[in-house]
Amino acid sequence: MRALLSIGVFLAAYEAVARSGWFAAALVPTLEVSLRTLWAMLGDGSMAGHAGNTLFRVFSGLALACAFGLALGFLMARYRPVERLFLPLVSALMPIPSLAWAPVFILWFGLGNTATILVVFYAATFPMVINTWSGARAVNPIWLRAAGAMGAGGTSMFWKVVVPGASPFIITGLRLAFQRAWIAVVGAEMLAASAFGLGWVIFDAKEFLNADIMLAALAVIGAIGFALEKFAFQPLERHTVVRWGMVKRA
Amino acid sequence: MIEIEKVSLEYETPSGKTLAVDSVSLGAAESEFLCLVGPSGCGKTTLLNMIAGFFPPSAGEIRVAGKTVSGQGLDRGIVFQDFAQLFPWRTALGNVAFGLEMKGMPKEERERIALEQLRLVKLEKFAGAYPHHLSGGMQQRVAIARALAYNPGVLLMDEPFAALDALTREDMQRLLAEVWRETRKTVVYVTHNVAEAVYLADRVVVMTPHPGRVKAVVPIALPRPRDPLSVEFLQHQKQLIAHLTKEEAAS
After folding, report:
1. Residue among A125, A129, A124, A132 at smallest CA distance from A166
2. Is some CB atom of chain B closer than 8 A to the CB atom of A149?
3. A110 touches chain B (CB under 8 A)
């Protein structure tokens, strides 16, 4: 409720500026114009098409990052040589913004999905690696002892104790990874996508001074990001680590 | 049931080698309740951990049911002091069923047995509760049920009630005495609480620190259930305290 109020106040302020006539209407369109554009793009399916493309890229990159990050994180926590080999590499690569890789990936793989998905993968992979690695090391040793005394070992110890024990860190890692991936995908689409995607829509609209289209796409980007956080990641947390009392309810 | 033969444990510290357990020999008969009592540093928990197989002794041998202990095994159940020993991502029932699951028992059967075990510690109503919804005493009861569920011959307990308030602790001692009477497990129970030892044990092993040694073994031949306010009970308590304080005066 309070969130709605603060968003409402902000939109009213924007509308006041847009209607004041201080700026060209084409550059600062009123909410009415922007909403009408959004409505039209939703109506003819073009917005859904772009959003679909963007979601495909973000989830492909995120899935790769999860698979890679979970595997590497657990291996680093379990085997010292793996940790010693990869930790410096992770530390060196992590500070490089994923978008800085976009031109490199475009050069290697051409414009299109491959380069975009790789940028997303790059953005999302570090939170997954670091959080999985930290989570596995933070597993309470008494759980390992108790499970060991009850005959758990190797595979069962990993799946039934280490993975759930590390899950608070892993779920936080997943949320961070998604946030970073969502930011990265829009940027990458501006550079690397040839004709589809929400980022591309904004980039393309700039060429034609279509500020209303840009605002419509921005609204959709914000709404999808918000919806996934609210209806996917928060429930995931509520039904697992919060339910188990390992993480306090937000 | 348990034979401990000249067991020592030495470990390295920055100031040289420390002898945590010095040539301890002990035995526990089938279905006997043995308490290890002593001040911190006397090696009682270290000894228990070696029986559990968490690490091997530097010298000597431990046998359980005739078999030399080498690592952890399903022939021994263990209960720790820390409430956090339960898996927070499993319900009470899921926790108790864990050992049976590791044995590969089908779900239906292991849940039936786990429920029986929860009934033994009077928690069958809380089978579906997650540990963080249970009080400390209830969590320790689940831990006892969990250690008994796969039917080990020996139950090892490391100050399981030390972190509970006094009233709950008394309830738990009564409950444990009942559980032991019903299951007839061989129990090795570590505590620093003399009254607890007299209430529960068939024999009390008094240990002294630096290095950890057995000072005395005191049989408690009182009938059960025991009355902590009876003269005989208090006499046994006095006797144990005398063993423990004499050591302090000497050191």
Report:
1. A132
2. yes
3. no
